[in-house]
Fold each of these.
Amino acid sequence: METTRLHIRRHTSSADACVVPDVLYHQIDILHSHPLPAAASSTAVQALSYVKVAASLAFFVSEAFLALLGAHASKSNVAAVALSVDPKSCTAAELRRSVLHLLLPKDTYQSFGLTGSHVRTKQGSRYAVQLPLASGTSERVLNRARWCFAHTLTGEFDLAFTGPPEFLAALQALAGTASAKTCPFALSTWTAPSATVVPPLTPLLERMDSAAAASTTKRTAVSSSTKKSMGPVACVPKARTALSDETRECVLDHLEWVGLAAMQADRVFDGKAAVDPIISTYRAPVLGDDDGTPVSMTKTSFRGLMDANRVTAILDAVRGKDTLSQRDGAAKGRKRASPSDDERAARPLMPTDVMVIARVVPSQIHDTSAGDCMWLLPGGSVATGFVGVQLECSAW
């Protein structure tokens, strides 16, 4: 059976940092009705890239790659994922925090040669094998892994790597131009065919705040999977507010609208007269007395392999808090000066509401319960904070 949970986090200050779960992402969708800040423009984001390498899994345990990984892994988060699954062995592979994760079916696992643990996934019964690649790993373990990769799992995989620019450049030189290529982030823009009314975020946030003030709070434990996916902020149990059924329904209605808008659903953008009410009885949520003014909605999407740092950089650029180059500098270890109150006040606020959706790589191994994330960022002259939502899916 598969269960789905929504982790909703209400931030009361617009200066708060967006909590991005530490997993891999392959696409970011931004819904906006006003031009994005210059730092989040197509030119700035397309300057980011990742590297694809066509190689067998033995590439991870080669001496040259281990030396390259040891030189960069301690300074930044180097990650990789197999974009294709070996059709003969149904094997998935992922590199996270200098540990190679493999997910093998029973037949392949029995002939592989390394010890793992039995796990249950959406695809059925699998065996998870973890191979540490950091400096200090026993040479005996690495030699055993080289022998296993030489006799099993010899097929070629499409491996995607993300990391700092200097690591990606060295990786491409190591793999060679014949088997490695740099892939810039892909950009796509879609504009709604007609103006539509966007449900305002501010009344929703006010409703959540009033419901939180009137209700009681209780302490709840945080599961281990939630701690891993939501980052270090979630390691300490937080006070959870028991929202009323009406408030919870309003939040879910708004999230449903954002999901339909991200899918470019005709029911949202083509007007009520365009869909037969017998076929679809869906109605957009309305909060407050004002029905809203129709605006032209645009969806800007960026595709590419991203870790949590890259997603945070794009979110900060959308919010006008930072630039991608500044975020890359902080990732390299350079201390970034904290902005003063005057600098925060001088930053241009978003004139309209913005919704951001980060889509996780579906074939991840180290945290299979992590789902897509969403941030509802209100615009206007009043800093009312924002809402972050994480989807968690688990099979049991």
Amino acid sequence: MGGCFIKQYVEVAAQILGLQPTVFEDMEKAEYTNCGSQWAPFHNEGEWDLAHFLMKNVGQTKMDEFLKLLLVHVICQSGVSFANACAFLKYVDSLQTGPAWTCEMIDIVGDVVAEDGSTQWEQLELWHKDPVKYAMAYVPECAYKDSEGKNHIYDEIWTADWWWDVQGKLPAGAMVAPIILSSDKTSLSVFSGNKKAWPVYLTIGNILKDIRQQVSMHAMILIGYLPVSKLKCFKKTHSLAGYCLFHHAMLLLLQPLVDASCNGKVMIFHPILAAYVADFPEQCLVACNKESQKFDDKGLHAVYKPFWKDLPFTNIFTCITPNILHQLHKGIFHDHLLQWCVNIVGEKEVDTCFKVMSQHPGIFTVSQWTGTEHKEMQRVFMGLLSGTVDDHILIIICSLLDFIYYAWCQQHTDLSLKSFHDHKHVLIDLGICEDFNVLKIHSFANGYNTEYPDNKCDYMEQMVLWLQQQEAIHHKSAYLAWRQLYYAKTEVCNIGRAQVVIL
């Protein structure tokens, strides 16, 4: 980070214990052990290029037709060693890939009693892979705008107080791998069975945000598919059963994180849950909170074994990350700022001014606003209240509207909300509100609000097999790129040594 003052972590952290071969070096060793060909199991470079093209661009149902084309055999003069999709996919399945997918069955016993007196039940599938094998770690630091350290910069996760505090709780030399989870229930089809998938993604905070947010960089991995069911075997406790199923499946999915952090293994890194990215309904699901009520004893679901219960150094309520639509547009602006101004000016006055400035039928005539409509409302909000409220109120409005746009920025400081905090007492003085215990404001300290890709394929078993084959091709492609660069550098070094000998 340029133009800032860095405070280094002075204790021992991320201690290097030794050197191990990289994944690519292991692949290179296996290459020479087997047949000495970098293109194996494919016969040559042309066959590998064809395989890469087929996996990225041609569906499995069309592969057989493509491979029968005369053009393919003309271009590949010696022909291809795989005559159909089945033979080709056997080659792909033999390539090295990441952790294998496994399916775990979950039995759900409901509260609906059948005519024969038996209790109805369901058997659901949880598809998952080990997330620990992808971890890595670095060292925390604090960044400031000034040399006195009074204006803290919040940029990457290692510049936040969280990592610094957690690092101090770990043994000397330990490494922190901040785990960032994301989930989003997704519709795969509407007319053919109304099938849904519930993917769970994982990335780590050690990776730059710019890289994490690029789908092409593969910095986020798919670690599992949660079971999706209508739970027809439940009637009275249907909602609670859905919460319990989610937490039980997540507990099984994340058990490797608990084992890696608590069992004293040789590995010195500590994977610790730092953030959970989800929309508002899933945020309530993660926090065991009912969507329609405030967070109090009456708004909690009785989930006695939430998945985060045994995760070390984890406060799930600080892990819930903001969602731009629900926490800013619908939360800060619509639920709070708009209501404050209505209490000051009156609903009729606000609605009349809005109709004049925007040529819209009115703020209060629409039952549900989209994100785009909220943005359009915010563009004219300062203008419609100018001259109708006190200047201090306008400053509060301006500072919050500015921050809604600042939230998209890569970097924040302690001054991002200073103007709002300096003037917010006016609302209390006017009796508009009693306090500012608005969690949505405080949650925007880091850039976690990221849209992650969904995988919409056929269905579960076929889907994970397809993903594994795609991953295998990606691994091979990355290895060949590394190999080419490695040998190019080696050749340059050898040429340099030869020149020295000649001189």
